[in-house]
Amino acid sequence: MFKMNASRKLTPEELDAIAEIRKRIASKKWIEVVEDNKLNSDMFLIRYARASKFNFDRAEKMIKYYADSLRCEKPDPITLLQTVFPDDFTDYVRGYVGGRDYEGRPVVMLPEAGRKWNLKKIIQNGGEHMFIKYIHKVGLTIEAEILERDADYGICVIDVGEIPYANYFHRRSVEVLVELVRHMEKCAPEVIKRVYFVNAPKLWIALFAAVQAVITIKADIIIFDCNMNSWKTKLREIFPEDGICPEFGGTCANYTLV
After folding, report:
1. What sign has the CA pseudo-torsion 88, 178, 31, 39?
2. Which pLDDT score is estimated for 114?
3. Helical segments of 42-157, H only
4. Comparison of pLDDT for 73 and 14, the residue scoring more
5. What is the C-alpha end-to-end distance of the chain, expressed in Å?
6. Residue 46 · residue 17 · CB < 8 Å
7. What is the DSSP letter of 242?
């Protein structure tokens, strides 16, 4: 496992902020649901400090929201991480967590999101709740990788090509995705801090811009159009060859199938 040891790069001010947040939450009864490896991780706590712009009251509220989410999660996080989704669901939805950028940050790789992730059909077939569970499992998996590597955040690479035009305008699909983004940013800020969308058609780019005008997406968003040679070249500048899966131009085979 490539260990980043990102906490060595924290500034004195950031280390002071971590100490203050750790002191504030140490005696709270609700914090008991959060695992010790997270509470002992500087990189876990600094994400809340940064997301709150170093407002400690706000950071504490965000961590409490995270703890409450863990407590209320059905199934619980450990069970969810062990959940195997049925074949008729994974035919539509599949992702990979692993790889790395040049600094060792883990990557969520979704090379089939545009071609096979038919959220409209999943919802119409009654699978909305299962899809939400799946996204939560992806979030827990990348969070575990971040902690294991002592990284500052995770990265996501998504191929959004070949989405059927009818799916762009399925209202409930958009609502579900927006609700998930809002929950994840409130619950686990900066777990995914950088997102690369590749193979993006012009219509998708226009509609995504419209969604961004409605909700604030705190992650850094980078969009590459349908010029495959161009976006594969750009990804190679960000990820080593063994850090990204073959569909994105690499050779990575060290990942967890989610």
Report:
1. positive
2. 87
3. 42-51, 56-72, 77-81, 87-90, 113-116, 119-124, 128-149
4. 14
5. 18
6. yes
7. G
